[in-house]
Fold this sequence. Notes:
The complex is a heterodimer of chains A (271) and B (573). Chain A is mostly helical and 271 residues long. Chain A is 50% helix and 9% strand. Chain A starts with 6 loop residues before the first helix and ends with a helix. Chain B has three domains: 1-184, no CATH class; 187-324, Four Helix Bundle (Hemerythrin (Met), subunit A) (Up-down Bundle), CATH 1.20.120; 416-571, no CATH class. In chain B, a hairpin with a 2-residue loop joins β1 (136-144) and β2 (147-155). Chain B is extended and about 110 Å long. Chain B starts with 10 loop residues before the first helix and ends in a 15-residue tail after the last strand. At the A-B interface, β2, α4, α5, α6 and α7 of A face β2, β3, α11, α12 and α13 of B.
Amino acid sequence: MTTSSTPVVTSVVDASRLLAFALRPKLRPARDGDYAELVRRYREDDAFAELVKAVCLGLDLIVLDVDDRHGMVLASTDDSVFAVRMADYAKRTGGEGKAAERVLHALAHLGTATLAYPRPADLANLAYVGRVTVNGVEAFVREAARRLNEAALEADEDLDPPADQPDLEASWRVYLRRAATPGSVDGRRVSSSTTGMVSKAMAFLADQGMLTRRSDDDGGTYATTSRYRVQVAEAGSRMFAELLALGITEITDGEGTLTQIEWTEQDLSLL
Amino acid sequence: MEEGATDVYDPAVVGRADGPSWSDTGMGSVAAAAGFAQRVKALATTAPLHDLDARKGQVQNADYSVYQMSELALHAIDLVTIAMDFDTGARPEAVVQELARKAAAQAVQRTPLEHERVARWVLENLLNVGSADRGFRTVYGMSGPQGYDRRTFDFKLLEETRGTDGELYLRASNEAVNVLVGALEVDLEAAHIAADLRLDILIKRGRLSEAQASAQNARYRTIQYGEMLRRRLEATSRDVRNVDWSVAMPEFLDEALVHIEDRFRAENAILVNLTEARDTADTATRKAQAARLIEVVRDCLRRHDQLQAALQSAGARFRAEQDRQTFTSTTAAAVAAALDLHGQLLIPALLCSARDADRALGRFFSPAAGLDVPQALRLVDLFEGLITAPTGRDVLGEAVGEPDVIPDEEPSRFSEASYHHLDRLLALDPEAPQRLSGLLADARQRQQDDDEATDLPLLVVVRVLAQAAEDIGAARRHHEGSVLMAIDDGTPLEDPDFAGSDLLVARAAILQLPEPAADTGEAGETEEGYDGPAAEESTPAAVSDHQESADVTDLDVTTTEPAPAEDTQEGAA
């Protein structure tokens, strides 16, 4: 591909070029012959694959997946220059005392992922295409929070959070308290509302090539791309590890916790 | 259950009102502390109202000191609450208008513009527009085993929600309605029953003036209960799969329906007593009081009606949801390795404290958001960008050329000549009906003679089928001499191209009436068939009916057909 002296240098150039393609998330191998060729080489040539991984390692990046459909998907480590930082992502989220704000933004992302892949099977299914809407995700997370509120009320645990330590407040309270769709003077979405945050998250993900915008219905309707599945799986396992470290774990049987609906004998008798 | 709390301004009443409800739950110190906390919270919900009066002097650009702001705020909550029904809330503009009127009553000498500004100020403060949460927060303390413990209590008075039409509506929160009825948070259904019961007793004893406040209370409880139901139902219609449709939801629906049924019965009984009280009232004041009460109770009943309808349709929604979710294909592949995002991540994250959730979610956010590729600034881009002269843009853009539109008419299916032949073919003598097979043979003959007539047999069939169903009434109104009829007498059609019944095609003459005006009315009344489906009209039964009544109605449809089989031409072609 390039005119260079030694084969090693040529390979490094190619490895870096593959990395450069990966840094443009909207570019797909199907649209670019060079990219497709490099992806093929990565999958067939183990030495080349090792080289690519080594280059990534030096840049604090991890190769998550290399595939014909979405090309190379990378994840950043915490100190990578490529890591998306919350403080850059949204205003007024940096520093102490802004935990609630950060939690809301991250919940918008987690909610989007959850509704995009509602069952474990969906996340494992390579061909699954999820569909999410801004209003749907907002309502979904709010509903989950409302149910936790209800459960707390029923268990007589509805203790209001301590006043001097706002960060000990349960996250569902933070979410429930925040207005969903307040009105504004000019009729635009209020960015600090939960709907505004979800909308921002989805627009951002669409920019990153992880969602594609389908229509303006329900505040914005998006479909997932195969790249998003890879990233969500990685992000999910990292978060799970963190929850494990915090001592909060849920072990499931892979069936999913969202209620499965089936017809029972009783329902049939009602017909 | 609250006992006699109707006066919102008296904190003592507020405290006393809920006495029995918390003492019921147990007499331990924890329960007492919880009861105390409830009272403190109840006081706190009125704080934003008092705060308005405290702050009205600080408004910089106007003098609001003449207005009683807490009264206006109460009016605002009241307006929103009453306007709330199952589907929508109150329109902000309508509330502002109404509120401005109340403000005008308080300060007649001020301008209408200021009245409106005051109304907006009150409404914005009730929404707490400045804050991100659009709610209120208060700190209270509780003595517990670990000593004095400060906690925060968050609440909203008015909330902005979007209706199904995307418009912004105001809804009053549970706390706001509690401010109105001057009571603490209690079990809603119990409070609802209590309010009705009290109203009933007061009316039975004839104490109408006291019943007035009770009726209002009962109405607030109805609205509050409806709001609770609405929230639950809304959750179910959100197309989220974490609603327990199999057990919890049907149970909840049943419970709600029973409650509403009970209220219905109780309030209907109250209505009967009230009507009696109104009819037997001795003074005009009592009569008016009773009439007002009836109005309030009727509103309660109307709201219950609406609730019941919504609950019943929820059942259908439940079944549709069940269908949709049961028949969604699930990959049977064991995916033990895959994470359950909802159960393993979202719910635990929501349950954590904000501090822990921040750490855990931070781990999720960064990989899920992808990479942030820093934009490298190149001098060459910067240079080019800076030296490029700004392009002047015409505001209106380029002129839009007038497009040449060529009329694109669909060519007629049959040629002009065919129609010409058709008209002659169907100009039948009323005295001589023909069979469809005969017409077809004739048509084929004509087609052979005339090259321009294409597809004539098909046209004949189409026309016979269409015109056979001609409306007699319409033909008569248009003063046409005759209608075409086709009757199936069961003879099968023997034809190489068409199959079906060999219809009898006849032209029936219509005799115009000597006195049209008198007749149309009569005919319209007696003969419903005139406006009915056309196929029915051409049935032999209808025809013979006309014949029999010909002498009376002056309408004569002559046809020489013997009454054949009942059904019409439907089987043909």
